[in-house]
Amino acid sequence: MNKSLSILSSITNDLNMLNTNLKKMVGAKHPILYAAAEHLFSAGGKRIRPAIVLLVAQATTSNHNILPEHRRLAEITEIIHTASLVHDDVIDECQTRRGIETVHNTFSTKVAVLAGDFLFAQSSWYLANLNNLEVVKTISKVITDFAEGEVRQGLTNFDSSISIDDYIEKSFYKTASLIAASCKGAAMISNTNKNIQNDFYLYGKHLGLAFQIIDDVLDIIGSHKSLGKPAGSDLKNGNLTAPLIFALEESSKLHNLLNREFQNKDDINKAIKIIKSTKGIQKAKDLAQEHIQASIKALGNIYHGEANNTLQLISHYVINRLN
């Protein structure tokens, strides 16, 4: 996240405060649950989602003031995201996340599932305590979307008939929904009008989709370090992502590997090699770029000042993760 640290300089103190608060907020009575939650938050992570919430707060308040409710929404956003990662890691059987062992590896699958549930429950409780019904409606929908995305992904594993539209829809549920809803929620807390709220929703939606597409490109070409999880893990689990879907249009051999679910020892490496030899990665990058442009367009010319510039820089940062 080094590249992005400089662009987030205006909210560095706010992010430090967020890290301190996260550990306090997950203070479970049961030592194992507390240890599991603390294990996650100690691992760091990019904190890009709460950073976006804080920047939307700055962009939509008269004196660029971040209200206590904005801070709480940023914390809730990170807790929801982290809960989804714990469950994702169980489903995908990931061994490491953010450079450390996953919760189910360190403790057990049962503890990981319970820790994820606990974090979702905590986020709901804090959300209810915002005492803002519209924000509650907007954010609570995200938890439903996560489940919908996981089910869709599970039902289409190794299914070569999946289209790019199906993939975008699933990516919305799994990634973009949270960013879109939390951007809108931050604008709601600032009492902006419905048009501005919807603009920020679109900004978050397109940014989230671009983020997911780039993640999926990095799964093919990136390092373990840039991903926070082992490269090729999406392929191994049969998750059909943009580079793979585009590459399938060009390669019958890839279809064969997919149909046998990469069962042979070298199948994943062969698949990665084939994807790299097609236009799959470039087409995926182009698709991500389209969503980045849409995110910047959604910001429009209505918002000015440093926070708005930083939100645009975050859009560019998402694409630059490939460099």
TrEMBL record:
Record keyword Magnesium present: yes
Keyword rRNA-binding in annotation: no
Keywords (A to Z) from UniProt: Chloroplast, Isoprene biosynthesis, Magnesium, Metal-binding, Plastid, Transferase
GO molecular function, one term: prenyltransferase activity
Cofactors (names): Mg(2+)
Top-level taxon in the UniProt lineage: Eukaryota
Pfam families: polyprenyl_synt (PF00348)
Signal peptide residue numbers: none
A GO biological process held by the record: quinone biosynthetic process
Protein family: Belongs to the FPP/GGPP synthase family.
Protein name: Prenyltransferase
Gene: preA
